[in-house]
Amino acid sequence: MGLIETGRAIRELSILGLPFLEVVGLVLTCLVVVYFVPVYLRTIWDLWIKPTFSMGTNLLEMGKWAVVTGASDGIGKAFAKQ
Known about the structure:
By secondary structure, the chain is mainly alpha-helical. It is about 60% helix and about 5% strand.
């Protein structure tokens, strides 16, 4: 059986009435969708939805803390050294 005959046999092969290569394409498309859709939705959730509704880190649970700006000189530097 030569290469051309093998190609014809694959083209004529059908599974559930669909040509073989269409079945392969359908299966691969389903696998890609099953893998990438949850990753995409999780990214959308983490980047836009969760921050919008303030579902992030609860800063009150972290105890006492402060943000020191301008700590390179003056009052900010003195406060940062305390």
